[in-house]
Amino acid sequence: MSGTPPVSGSFALVDYVVFGLMLLVSAAVGVYYAWTDRERQSPRDFLMGGRRLTAFPVAMSLTASFMSAVTVLSMPAEVYRYGAIIALTSISYLLTMTVTSEIFLPVFYRLGITSTYEYLELRFNRATRLLGTVFFILQTVLYTGIVIYTPALALTLVTEIDLWGATVATGLVCTFYCTLGGLKAVVWTDVFQVGVILAGFLAVIVRAVILKGGVFPVIKDAQEGGRLNFWEFDLNPLRRHTFWTVTFGATFVWTSIYGINQAQVQRYISCKSLTQAKLSLYVNLLGLWVIMLCSVSAGLCLYSVYKSCDPWTSGLISASDQLMPYLVMDILGGYPGLPGLFVAAVYSGSLSTVSSSINALAAVTVEDLIKPNTNLTEKQLSWISKGLSLLYGVLCIGMAALASLMGGILQAVINIFGVIGGPLLGLFVLGILCPFGALSGLVIGFALSLWFSIGSHIYPPPPELTHPLPLTTSGCNFTTAEIQNWTFNIAPTEAIPITTLEQDIGSKYWYSLSYMYTCPIGTITVICVGLLVSLFSGGTKQKVESKLTLMKEDTTLFYVLGKNVQLNLTSDRFSKAQGNTNLAFVDVELNLPK
Question: What is the distance between the alpha carbons of residues 129 and 85, in angstroms, rounded to a whole number?
Fold first, then answer.
């Protein structure tokens, strides 16, 4: 607690039991589905759950897939350092689910595709599909390396868990149940892991509130410390977090995840109907809001406990991502089992994300790289899918070693999704909403996003733009030769005037654009360049099949064996009536005239 000597991490036997049970249950789910689905070994069943899943488990899986250690460790630390303005991301969640359910989902669902990037070949050409696949694989492997390594690093520095033992255990358990059980195992394990994450958060929040004497003292401390900074409406795009960056900017980031990312799309199109798929997105929205509420509340509790004795600036920990583990060992260390529950929550977040990534990587590799170039049987493809799950699991464990070079979790993850996901989102928007487009936009958008991202790492934004809130060690009652009583207090400053910015074009301020805008830059660049190139190259004259663009669902025009057939059915009823079969067989099922 605040003012107390440094915490020495110590796990009791019951903590190891709780943590081990979480890993055991996760692995058992994979064994269960490997046994129950042993007669159905097609890639469709392994990668898509046979398209028979319902809304609730898919919604929980969607929630868990990208609510990893980024949420459990980094989000509370973000609130501790920069305030609760990050909670406004909840607005972007609502916008994202609306855009995804009404624009992307109808097109992907009625096509019955397994890989999102199949759409790019249908809409553009094979080169575009391959480029999109390569971008996705690169993005996912980098992201998964962060997810595996960072929580292990944070926890080993405040507990007795071995760094590489924890890293390898996370990767191996995920690889095990993904390889055995496929998508069903991933989805149902995610349901269990969401419950563990919530339990871990609640243990910390409830104990902190009891220590502080109730909820209102926590809120009062947060207000006095400037942490309730929700209404920052500064239009300066160089400010790290404002109302606009965490709503407008984050909407692009999350749409690039839910709208087109294989790990998410693969889940909701595995639902048994379009209605169930849409419902899964909106139930997932509620899950995202609950997780956000818990993580922000944990951050406010973290500040309230350490408002006068910051363990980071006093040298008790070496990185802000270790704040939550330090708090857990501080306030829950005397309650055997609860530290283990929190560690299980952190690793549940990692397991859910890594398993989703491995399953998605196997899916795009089979569908985009292997299937179009071979004549393998369904059984052979099924075994290859399992082998790829194993291969990608090992690869992601290896990539974890590079994660230490990427800085803080939250900003590193947003940058990865911004640099690669932003341009890909622009390409899909061109395909679905515009009757024409160009591949050149993807290349230029990626180059521009990468340029800004690299520049921001070389020239980090100065404190007057990031606005870190005051932290102090004045209330600490321990002294050592290395730790001095000092205060880290950078008061918010005025935004940099436009005249100053004009003088600094080409200098470090050019790269100080908020990291939340990396994704919008890539998306908007791809759309603008794609449209311009198409206009000047005659691309506006190309004809696009109606099933590849957004259309009204009640009068959808399908291409059936080369004929235009108008069906006065909703996409939902159509898919249910046909069992979501390939459109090439609709002619036989409906007994249409030749």
Answer: 38
Residue 90 sits in a domain of what CATH number? Answer: 1.20.1730.10
**Location of structure tokens 């992201």:** 143
Q: Which stretch of 188-192, 384-388, 476-480 has the lowest confidence by average pLDDT?
A: 476-480
Compute the average pLDDT of residues 330-349: 83
Are 494 and 567 in a shared domain? Answer: no
pTM of the model: 0.77
Q: Give yes or no: residues 481 and 353 share one domain.
A: yes
Tokens (6 digits) for 402? 């590079």
Write the DSSP symbol of residue 365. Answer: I
DSSP bridge partners of 237: none
3-class state of residue 162 by DSSP: coil
For 311-363, the DSSP string reads TTTTTSSSSGGGHHHHHHHHHSTTSTTHHHHHHHHHHHHHHHHHHHHHHHHHH
Residues 439 and 567 both lie in one domain: no
Residue that is written with structure tokens 């929630």 in the block:
63
Q: Is the dihedral of CA 184, 187, 188, 190 positive or negative?
A: positive
Residue 8 lies in a domain: no
Structural domain count of the chain: 2
Q: Number of H helices and number of E strands within the chain?
A: 26, 4
Q: Is the domain of 533 the same as that of 566?
A: no
- Answer whether 350's CB lies under 8 Å from 169's CB: no
User: Which element (helix H / strand E) includes 557?
Assistant: strand 557-560
Paired with 557 in beta bridges are: 566
**Three-class HEC string of 253-286:** HHHHHHCCCHHHHHHHCCECCHHHHHHHHHHHHH
Examine the pLDDT at 98 and tell me if it is beyond 80: yes
Count of alpha carbons within 13 angstroms of residue 127, beta-carbon side: 5
Same domain, 108 and 181: yes
Q: Is residue 508 part of a domain?
A: yes
Residues 573 and 428 in one domain: no
- Quote the DSSP letter at residue 435: S
Backbone angles phi, psi at 370, to 5 degrees: -100, -55
Q: In which residue are the tokens 């589905």 written?
A: 33
Are 431 and 574 found together in one domain? no
More confident residue, 552 or 292: 292
Q: Same structural domain for residues 145 and 178? A: yes
On whether the CB atoms of residues 57 and 68 are closer than 8 A, the answer is no
Residue at 34 is within a domain: yes
DSSP states along 504-533: TTTSGGGG-S-GGGHHHHHHHHHHHHHHHH
pLDDT value of position 266: 81
Report whether 282 contacts 98 (CB < 8 A). Answer: no
**Cα 229 to chain centroid, rounded:** 25
Local confidence band at 575 (pLDDT 50, 70, 90 cut-offs): very low
Domain extent for 121 = 13-544
